[in-house]
Amino acid sequence: MNSDLEVARKAAREGVRTIKKYKEKGINIEQKGFHDLVTDADIATEKAIIKVIKEHFPEDEILAEESTAEDQLKDSRTWIIDPIDGTTNFAHGFPMYCVSVAMWEKKAPKVGVVIEVTRDEEFTAIAGEGAWLNGEAIRVSTKSEHKKAFVGTGFPYNDLSLIEPYLNLFRKLMQELQGIRRPGSAAYDLCCVACGRFDGFYEYSLHIWDLAAAALIIKEAGGVITDWDGEDRWAFGERIVTGNSNTHTFLLKMIGEYIPEEQRRVVTAEHSH
């Protein structure tokens, strides 16, 4: 047994229990930004997850959405936590929201756990050893023709200057793909790529805690993950495109044609790894 993965699973499960407790008793919602919500359940869940991790690894670093001032990643062992990925869904009683827990070392993912709370689906991965859904091995799809591809996305909400080119790209993809969905939880979307439900996924404005666990799950399931320039700067660049190799190549090509170069670039070079 991988002890890091077992602790990640234990911490994530404690997070799920906390979310369900708050859902039963009612939640308080606050605005972090115009389109960005936080609930008291997010904060309590994050604390519960961190408590489990610190009981086992008191010296490890923590990078968490609600309590970490900066999203700088160190070389040392770092647990990256999103207590509720899909908070807006959760706050409105809409399904598809996840607990995400990952451990990175030397700026690379080592273990990852994503649990979709409403369906109790547990996605896990260990670097170099594979990816699983509820204990069963998973792989990305083998679909090669983009006309038959089923793809997930999200919409830009913190940089509205990207709306026009994003919608131009979206319009084109509606014509080229079999279907596009926007479930509202990036961690879940990425796991859907990993298990072959989606053939690909692209989004702008994601943070490291949204994808720290799910990106490893995709990689271990045989998927490709890059930024919008096809480079390995996806972790802090806020631009991600992923899928099986064929769908990834097609999405990257479309992004290159419809998104201006200056809007495809990573936000800060210092965050690249």
TrEMBL record:
Pfam family, one: Inositol_P
Entry protein name: Inositol-1-monophosphatase
Matches recorded under CDD domains: IMPase
PROSITE patterns, per database record: IMP_1 (PS00629), IMP_2 (PS00630)
EC number(s) given by UniProt: 3.1.3.25
Family, as annotated: Belongs to the inositol monophosphatase superfamily.
Keywords: Hydrolase, Magnesium, Metal-binding
